[in-house]
Design a protein that fits this description.
Length: 327
């Protein structure tokens, strides 16, 4: 079989990435297909990202593969791959432009520029904005400055359609982010949705899980009247707290952290402290069904929820966990 020069480079890149993270570059089936210039490699591997904190709330460093246990649908799995901040990131920065966060737009540009600068060179960032509707402003790029510079031209106004914004960002990461990346959605908002946007909370969460992504929230203290905050909890609007917890992310509250800059820096640092755990599932069927995940430390570390806590996604959809996105 003869490949074009560009295609050969893609194959070599895929093999190199696989070697770096300890993944098999081609599985036993060696199923490959060329479609629209993309190589799809069927890797039967589930990757789970986890942040571990002790009972004092401090991130636990220095853990190894032998410290973790993973159960899928209650069945113990054999962890075969382990890393920390080695795989590149694919970040969708999703910025709320509703009128309630207008006072924070000016400091957001500086905070974004400074925080994104600490990402690795191979990490990519895209930019979405939303009020009533979501709009992609910058495609995934290694040029972090191109993202922060866009914020200078933002103006606020309109409703808060968090449902639609997260859904669109998840769809984009699923379709355009390389499968070898760790996918993250960073929501910059007051987390008070006023518009359901045509997508139910379950549809939004499913889209994020199918994209094999995690939602992190940079929570801004928006200017919302009491009736708006009450209305945000009804009518099919997404609960950001539940969404972050179910997808393995966290909320970073600007008020609690002291400033938007500090909160954003803390969020980016958290992304660097997540452990990536990989295993080949005992049930290899790719039938589109949902599989529940439970990650914990070995018994010597104490009791989950008492001696330590783990933040990780609640599960994955079997047909797309390892195979979504371009190769």
């Amino acid at each position: 079989m003869r490949f074009s020069k560009g295609l050969t480079k893609q194959i070599l890149a895929a093999v190199l990435i696989a070697a770096l993270v300890g993944l098999p570059s081609f599985p036993v089936a060696a199923a490959q297909q060329e479609e629209a210039g993309k190589i799809h490699v069927d890797v039967n591997l589930v990757l789970v990202e986890a942040t571990v904190k002790n009972k004092a709330g401090q991130v636990m460093d220095g853990l190894t593969m032998k410290d973790f246990e993973v159960r899928e649908d209650g069945v113990p799995q054999t962890v075969s791959h382990f890393s920390r901040d080695q795989l590149p990131l694919a970040v969708a920065l999703v910025v709320d432009l509703s009128s309630s966060i207008e006072p924070f737009l000016r400091p957001l540009r500086y905070a974004t520029q400074t925080a994104l600068r600490t990402l690795k060179q191979e990490d990519q960032v895209s930019l979405f904005t939303f009020s009533s509707h979501a709009e992609r402003k910058v495609n995934l790029t290694h040029d972090k400055r191109a993202v922060s510079d866009q914020i200078e031209f933002f103006s606020a106004g309109g409703s808060t359609n968090i449902n639609g914004a997260i859904y669109e960002a998840a769809q984009y990461l699923r379709e355009d982010a390389l499968s070898s990346t760790r996918r993250v959605i960073i929501l910059v908002s007051d987390n008070v949705p006023t518009d359901a946007g045509g997508f139910s909370p379950q549809e939004v969460e499913d889209a994020v899980l199918v994209a094999d992504s995690a939602v992190y929230s940079l929570k801004i203290p928006g200017q919302n009247p009491l009736e708006a905050r009450i209305a945000s909890k009804i009518g099919g609007k997404v609960n950001v707290g539940k969404l972050t917890a179910d997808t393995g992310g966290e909320i970073f509250d600007v008020e609690k952290e002291g400033s938007l800059y500090i909160a954003f820096q803390a969020l980016i640092e958290r992304l660097k402290t997540r452990y990536t755990i990989g295993y080949s599932p005992a049930n290899p069927a790719r039938d589109g069904s949902f599989h529940k995940l439970e990650v914990r430390l070995t018994p010597g570390h104490g009791e989950l929820g008492k001696d330590y806590t783990i933040t990780s996604k609640r599960g994955y959809y079997a047909n797309l966990a390892a195979n979504s996105g371009p190769r």
